[in-house]
Amino acid sequence: MGQAMSERSYKQVQKQFGRAADAYTWSPAFAEGEDLGWLVEQAGAERHAYALDIGTGAGHAAFALAPCAQQIVGLDITPQMVQAALRNAGERGIESFSASVGNAEHLPFPDESFSLVVCRYTGHHFHNPARVVQEVARVLTAAGRFLVVDNTSPDDAAADRWINTVEVLRDPSHVREWSQGEWQRYFQDAGLSFSVTHTWLKMLEFDDWVARQQTPPEAVAELRSLFAAAPAAIRETFAIESNQFGLLTRLMVGRKQ
Predict the structure, then answer these.
(1) Contact partners, residue 167, CB within 8 Å, separation at least 6
(2) Which of 75, 178, 203, 219 is 20 to 30 A from 110 in CA distance terms?
(3) What pTM, to 2 d.p., does this model score?
(4) pLDDT (0 to 100) of residue 32
């Protein structure tokens, strides 16, 4: 399940993503994607009074959902990401967006503050996802929605180990790509329903993947070796081909009971 984020882990995430904030503004892996439209679909037809984007990063999910809410709040553990999101919102003229620095394990909001909470490509950095989901359930209004888009580990144990090994090598702040079954347990333990609406392979370019996190050259070389030596089953699972590969990604939806 993971442990609470330590001060050392907190600082590691801030350091890793502070230097990568600008890259996340422009990277197609985050600025684009069909999943942004799927999030809007899952937000529902009603216009929410208040929505929350956990791990807002450069703000892409929040901006896509801005028409769905009167006010949308971005929360991120990294000050540079918050600054980037606020700058990007200003450039887009999105006046309903605000953002602040905060820890998802201790959401700085009162009970039942939001009818919509979203978390896009952030969960694999959670040391204690169960705690985060409990916090989300606390700040959700009755029948409120929690939408999670994240890379998830395959059911196969060898594939699980392989992808989490390469992810940590590329980004030391990576904790784990949690499995669908783990996410389901966290949702249900927090009193949320659970369903998966979309499952897909998110295709990435290797060079952009390592450049975005400024992975050191020696780690890049080790990663290239791991990809080149990957067994056939691993190559098939992650669609490894030349400079491309895919991550098993899901859109998971919960409703507060």
Answers:
(1) 124, 174, 177
(2) 178
(3) 0.90
(4) 84
